[in-house]
Amino acid sequence: MKNFIEEVTWRGMLHDVMPGTEEHLMEQMRAAYVGIDPTADSLHIGHLVGVMLLKHFQIAGHKPLALVGGATGMIGDPSGKSNERNLLDETTLRHNQDAIKGQLARFLDFTSDAPNAAELVNNYDWMKNFSFLEFIRDVGKHITVNYMMAKDSVKKRLSSESAEGMSFTEFTYQLVQGYDFLHLYREKNCTLQMGGSDQWGNITTGTELVRRIASGKAYALTCPLITKADGTKFGKSEGGNIWLDSARTSPYKFYQYWLNTSDIDAEKYIKIFTFLSKEEIEDLTEKHKEAPHLRLLQKRLAEEITVMVHSAADLDNAIKASNILFGNATADDLKQLDEATFLEVFDGVPQAEIARIEIETGINIVDVLNEKTGFFKSNGEARRALTANSISVNREKVKEDFSLSNKDLINNQFVLLQSGKKNYFVVRVL
Fold first, then answer.
1. Checking DSSP bridges between strand 16-17 and strand 219-223, what pairing results, if any?
2. Which pLDDT score, from 0 to 100, does residue 84 have?
3. End-to-end Cα distance, the chain
């Protein structure tokens, strides 16, 4: 067995762990689980730390269980929340579960014959036929209200700072999660639950149920909640969550998020979100410190995680898209961009619309720059820029005799105008 605790410790992925966990894991192959509430049909990068924990667990020779919380997703976890979440119906939860499994399969081995192949489990499967009376008799009687009230997640929601208070539904969440651990202990010989540091109270309720009901010994491990050095929330952009689903967050935007991390964050994230070795990371960090302007850490981090979540082809396209604004991209590079990526690269750039029929007959570049788009205020200003050789169409310099036509369209609908190095204008053909 590889030393899992040692691995996650140097990577900065260990916040708290029950005494004896390391020794327990070194004895033989063990099973551990991480819970994911299926509130959407995609994971976002906030879920990735838990997924990486499971992957390191599997690499160390142990068996990872990914628990999709169909039952707990119907309740809503109060931990770290100020409001109760919306409840989902079973059809939506099943759809979300299937989508999430597809994403997890990029990280975890679910299909091999290895004894430590990963499994996906759903707590709805064992909770749906559990009657309320059975639950409060068989589970509820073993945990006191005093014990439940002492949990930080409960105390915060019941404090004077919280105007919402807490429903009985949410109050029972830790019992339901605790029962998950007991069930997996009995059915899958699972002895460890892992999660974010805000989950410690819920996890230890599970270890307590294993002790009191099954007379067993179970363990808890948490990782730190990921933060950014500037105090803003990790995993968020101006457009919201950074999702793993390319339809929600494009590979280009995904790549850019990691590329734009600060030096301090990149040094921390490359340990957590890649599988590079300690020696590789230390060497890369030293080289980065010698020439921080090259952003070696950010580039390697963005490359590794984009390939892991998407593909090498998506990474290649994201780099090409990035080079359009910041590198020496050509007209051919531009024409390879799909519509969504093109619009994301030039988000915020002024735009104008031109009728397709006008493009088909050809429009003189001076008219395009002034009358048709307003990129320049007058024909004279446009001509002076053309004479100075500072106007480009799709990154290629043009003269005053240039005529814009169908052959210049990107994705059969866009034209990129450029004045000098940094002034861009997008023409959309309708």
1. antiparallel
2. 47
3. 62
Find out whether 253 and 344 touch, Cβ atoms under 8 Å.
Answer: yes
| Environment class of 323 (CB within 10 Å of its CB; exposed 0-12, middle 13-18, buried 19+) | middle
For residue 218, the Cα-to-chain-centroid distance in whole angstroms is 30
Rounded Cα gap, residues 223 and 12, in angstroms: 8
82: pLDDT strictly greater than 50: no
Q: Please state, in angstroms and rounded to a whole number, the distance separating the CA atoms of residues 328 and 199.
A: 47
CB-neighbour burial class of residue 162 (10 A; exposed 0-12, middle 13-18, buried 19+): middle
For 152, 204, 263, 286, 288, the CA distances from 291, given in Å and listed in that order, are: 44, 45, 11, 9, 5
Structure tokens given for 37: 């509430």
Q: 0.90 cut: is pTM over it?
A: no
Q: What's the farthest any 2 CA atoms get from each other in the chain?
A: 88
| 252 in a known ligand binding site | no
Q: How many residues does the chain have?
A: 430
Query: Exposure of 231 by Cβ count < 10 A (0-12 exposed, 13-18 middle, 19+ buried)?
Result: exposed
Q: Is 33 annotated to bind ligand?
A: yes
Is the pLDDT confidence value at 180 over 80?
yes
Instruction: Tally Cβ neighbours within 10 Å of residue 25.
Output: 24
Chain-centre distance for alpha carbon 387:
48
Instruction: Indicate the average pLDDT of the chain.
Output: 89
Per-residue burial over 166-191, b if 16 or more Cβ lie within 10 Å, else e, is beeebbbbbbbbbbbbbbbbeeeebb
User: What φ, ψ does residue 261 adopt, rounded to 5°?
Assistant: -70, 155
